[in-house]
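User: structure tokens for this one?
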Amino acid sequence: MSALHTISVSPTNGLINSCLRLVCPGDGILFIQDGVYHCCPPCLLDSVSQDNALFALREDLLARGLLCKISERITPVGFGRFVELTIDYDKVISWS
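Assistant:
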């Protein structure tokens, strides 16, 4: 059973460490709101398995001036794809 983990808090919160301990192969991680700050190198995301897809909400990246600064592992997505991701995965786990 795959899960989409959504991270909405900044790196200073430290919540990403708890999330990464529970991410299983085939899970995805979507960064939204202040969570998009996790997408800029250097970041912990380099240690995430290639089996896990990484996404960030494009609108939140743009609002924070980060779209051109994110790790190449991150796939920016719009609101439409965000909704599709919640359907593509078996469950959604919100980290906030």
